[in-house]
Structure formats: C-alpha cells, structure tokens
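Appendix B, Record 12. Input sequence as logged:
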Amino acid sequence: MSHTAHIPSHRKPRRSASKTALRAGVAGGMLSTIAVAGAAGPAQAEPVTQTIEMPTITAGLSTSVAASAQATQAVALDLETRAAEDAAATTAAKTAKKAKAEAVRKAEAEKKAKAAAEAEKKAKAAAERASRSAERTTLSASTGSSGSSGSSTASASVSSSSATGSAASVVSFAQSQVGDAYVSGGTGPNSWDCSGLVQAAFRTVGVDLPRVSQDQSTAGTQVSLDNLQPGDILYWGGAGSAYHVGIYVGGGQFVGAQNSSTGVVQKSLDYDPPSGAVRVL
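Logged structural output:
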C-alpha cells in the first residue's frame, strides 16, 4: 500500500455548458417567455422554466397615431387659414392702393380742368375787353371828323320822350343797378356783365332774351339811332356779332355794364356811341 497520501483536488468540478433558450414575442400583445435551463455537477438537473410578462408596445399606438394625425391636420388648417388671410390682406391692400391712385388721378384731372376753364374764362374776358377797346377806337376815329357839333346834333335828334308801360319798367330796373360791379359772366344781383344786365331788365316784364350780346343784337326789330325810344337795346359791333349791349333810357342816355373799371354806369351816347339798336317792346 502506497504511503502517498490521497490529496483531494481543490478544482471545482466542471459544469456542463449552460443552455439558454430565449423566446420573445412582441407582436399583437403576446407574452414573452424566457426559458433558462442549466445543469450543475455530474448529474443532469431538471430544466427550470420562468415566465416573464413583457410590456406591449402597441397598446396605445392607435391613440397616439390618431392624436398625431389630428395635430397635423390642425397645423395644416391653421397654415391654410393664415395663407387665406394673407392673400385677402394682399388683395385688399392692392385694391386700396388702386382706389387711392384713381382718386388722386381724378382729383388732378378735375384740378387741371378747373384751371383750364378759369384760364379760358380770363382769356375770353381779356379778348372781349380788347375787342371792345378796338371797336371803340375805330368808332371814335370814324366819328371824330364830325366834331362835337355833329355829336350834339345826333344826340338832339334822338327821342327824349319819357318811358311808359313795360319800357318804363325795363328802364327803371337798369337805372337801379347803376353803381354795381362789372363781372364777366355776371347775372346779378349785385354784379353784371353787359348782356346779363339787359337780360335781367327785360325779364322783369316777362321777356326772355338770349343770354349773349351777339344774339341780343338781333332779338328784335332793327331801328335807326335817329329814332330811339326808351327801352331799346343798343349794341356795339355788328348785328349778330355784337361785342357789347346796353339799354337806351331816353334823353340821349344809356345804361350799361361797361367794364371792370367803371361797373354799371349811365352815360350819354356821346360817351360811347353805339353801332345800332333793336326794339323788343
């Protein structure tokens, strides 16, 4: 018998390789199962099985997806609303800008038209005054050779009878305006042009004369300056092309709205000898 002592080994007995099986299910809410089996020592141990419940990842998925879809739809709707509001604001701004530009254009056009009308009116008045001056110069030159004695004879030859009836009313109205201002285009009550005064005087007796001198110079029967009667219309220039009118008031006198310097005056025919006369009454 050997004296060699039997020394037990300190080495741990080998374990057989552990066997692990993992079986997991994550679809449709299935339970996941983990099985672990192991054997220790020389003997084969019974496999140990343990069941672990894993959380499902689809339980609230449909709700989250629905909420996300609603949020996306809300954002899209908000963006669409903002786009519509921006488009409407842009359209309104363009419309307002266009309307403002049109209003400015219209105002400028009206301003220019008014200025043009005013300039035309002034030019017409200046031309009328110039024409009157030229005609008066011509008439004065043509009658100057006759001398003052000729003028006195002509004045004495006209009728000096007092006005009666409608003629008296016309004469009275004209004389009551003496001292009023002369304004081109004026028709009263305190400022007149020559034809405006004549027209207003005859209107007092129900006679509606044309408005302008040219037409008034042919409104009645042509009469000689040697046979004037109170209420006759005197004109300067040609019949149908007269540039000035007045009213004969008798006694070799006439009343007329002469010009802006003199206004409405009563003067002798020698002051401004007329070219002709018409009788309406």
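The longest strand covers residues 244-250.
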